[in-house]
Amino acid sequence: MDYYDKVREAADAVRSEIRDVPQIGIVLGSGLGDFAGTLADAVTMPYGDLPHWPVSRVIGHDGKLVIGTVRGRTVAALAGRCHMYEGHGGPTVTFAIRALGLLGVRTMILTNAAGGVNTGFSQGALMIIDDHINLMGTNPLVGANDDRFGPRFPDMSEVYSARLRRIADKAGRAIGLRLPHGIYVALLGPSYETPAEIRYLRTIGADAVGMSTVPEAIVARHMGMEVLGVSCITNMAAGVLPKPLDHAEVMETARRIRGQFSALVENIVEQL
Predict the structure, then answer these.
(1) Tens of pLDDT along 16-58?
(2) Predicted local distance difference test score (pLDDT) of residue 20
(3) Is 39 left (phi over 0), alpha (psi -120 to 50) or beta?
(4) What's the whole-model pTM score?
(5) Where do the DSSP E strands lie in the chain?
(6) Residues ≥6 apart with Cβ < 8 Å to 144
(7) What's 3-271's CATH class?
């Protein structure tokens, strides 16, 4: 069975468990998985119960697909993602995006926990991603292209939809948030960046840094989906503050802003 057939089998397995096919997908970053619990009329499917579906082993990633409604719209929420630093290749890391695409999702909201490179940011800020820089050393489209997914050389001039960014701004204003915009840089990880690396990233235009999202965004665009990216600035990057970085701080900040995050995502979904 080739990769496309595995993705198709996974999508078919999901379809057999639900009544309404979602057109909106949401990937929930580290510590943000609680949003999946707010979906109404939810059907929950652990990744391990779905054929061929990769399972993340990272703390803060529950590893389940939840399909339900948000303000009357059917959405598919991925509570947990796989990362390349776990040893996975591009096809594995983006398997869930492919499966949701074949299921019928046309709009993908990608969220993550990120380090703040822009010194004007504060912990807990929610940043709308305007564009990204891929410094992971690879691309999820490397290898033979399957035209059933998309073209060999997909355009990346507007990875993150201008229309969706405007909707996000409006959704933020509705709950009293002025959302900063910025450039997200993806590194392979799992080690956090050095202060010298952060100075370099700031020089090339980065506002936030993390270890995910970019492979998913590339694959979503490859499949013709419209993409929105939201980074939760869970910590300031190395060298910005005189203290070491740790994953516990990331999780704590994500927990602290989960109400604000949920309200923003709900408002965005309502306007789609």
Answers:
(1) 999 999 999 999 987 788 899 899 999 999 999 999 999 887 6
(2) 94
(3) beta
(4) 0.95
(5) 24-28, 40-46, 64-70, 73-79, 107-116, 126-135, 181-187, 208-210, 226-236
(6) none
(7) alpha beta
